Amino acid sequence: MTYKVAALYQFVPLPDYRELKDPLYRICLDLGIRGTLLLAQEGINGTVAGSSEAIDALMSELRDGAVFEGRLDNLELKFSTAAEMPFKRMKVRLKKEIVTLGDPQTDPLRRVGTYVSPADWNRLLEEPGIVLLDTRNDFEVEMGTFAGAVDPRIKRFSEFKDFVKAELDPTRHRKVAMFCTGGIRCEKASSYMLAQGFEEVFHLRGGILKYLEEVPEAESRWNGGCFVFDERVALGHGLVERSGETGPSDE
């Protein structure tokens, strides 16, 4: 059996997020879906896997079902496949943030950078004076990145704001392009940088996963594999599993 994997997120006000946990968990359990979904007042984030029919049913429930009452009408979605079930169990967790930056002034619901489609990404990188930032953790960057990208060498995303304060200057770095795995970290990162006075901030819509899905390998500027937080470890062009990759050590 081939499993369908859905990576999803949406920043949307969910003041009742605590009450959504149990019904969402039951829906996933009834469909035989496994993975992790995070709920917070600012939205939903996560990756889940199941049969193609089960994932399609969950997406329909998220968008149009009674639990979310039509609020998840702009989900950022990436689909891929796995030869084996990449998750051991189903988890729905409540969080303060669906991706943790730890800056209360940063609000992607109010302001984010300019989205750039995968089809236009290569063209943006050719513009003079562009600063290309990889907003992911160091072990992810080691596995693969875009040519010429700045590695902030962070252990966790919450350290990104410290990197910006120490290494970047809005008076000198006037045009910044950034990317991450699926796009969610860039929503927070671009919102933060705009609040710090950076004038032009761009981010890759749908992240690396959408780029690898849509851009032909012959035209790609991506080198290596894209780390994913499940037992597949890494994906390549066409969102195909890469063999022989290992995740970060626990030592």
UniProtKB/TrEMBL annotation:
It catalyses: uridine(34) in tRNA + AH2 + O2 = 5-hydroxyuridine(34) in tRNA + A + H2O. It is an enzyme of class 1 (oxidoreductase). Its EC number is 1.14.-.-. The keyword tRNA processing applies. Keywords: Oxidoreductase, tRNA processing. Coiled coil: none annotated. PROSITE patterns: RHODANESE_3. Pfam families: Rhodanese, UPF0176_N. Residues 126-220 form the Rhodanese domain. PANTHER family: RHODANESE-LIKE DOMAIN-CONTAINING PROTEIN 7-RELATED, THIOSULFATE SULFURTRANSFERASE/RHODANESE-LIKE DOMAIN-CONTAINING PROTEIN 2. Belongs to the TrhO family. Catalyzes oxygen-dependent 5-hydroxyuridine (ho5U) modification at position 34 in tRNAs. This is tRNA uridine(34) hydroxylase. The lineage of its organism: Bacteria, Pseudomonadati, Pseudomonadota, Alphaproteobacteria, Hyphomicrobiales.
